[in-house]
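for the writeup, i need someone to sanity check this before i put it in the appendix. the sequnce is what the collaborator sent (i think, or maybe the updated version? ugh). structure was predicted straight from it, no edits. if anything looks off just tell me and ill rerun, i have time this weekend
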Amino acid sequence: MFRGRFEYSIDGKGRVSVPAKFRDVLRQKYASDQLIITIFDSCLVTYPLEEWQVFEDKIKNLSLLKKEVKFFLRYFYSGAMECAIDDHGRILVPSQFREHAHLQKEIVFVGVMRGFEIWDKGIWEEEVEKYKETFDEISESMAEWMGL
């Protein structure tokens, strides 16, 4: 599982080192270092290829006649790209993804169980402030969903 937050810098060409802990997870749990990256909310989401394939297996059974499915696939799925980790432990974030997520120099990697997110540091800090305001409420809802 991907856990934790890590701050890094992205260079002018869009290269950024993947946190060592995340690379360890990839080596230990997955057969490949291939990642799938796509846009979501105000960030980028990144999944190991194997996790993405599990997602594809689930989504392929949804009806394309449903408007929500079409919109979701057009936005989230159609923008997905394969992304390999290079010999220096870096990925190249395509320019259209950097623009979408407003990635500047300082970015934050956020572990989210089966994958991780890539945020502009300033936008991430704004999101965290919003989460702080509603965390108690959300925690109660989560506890109910989980039967805790």
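The beta strands are 5-9, 15-17, 34-40, 43-48, 81-84, 90-92, 106-112, 115-120. The helical segments are 20-29, 49-59, 67-77, 95-100, 121-146.
thx in advance!!
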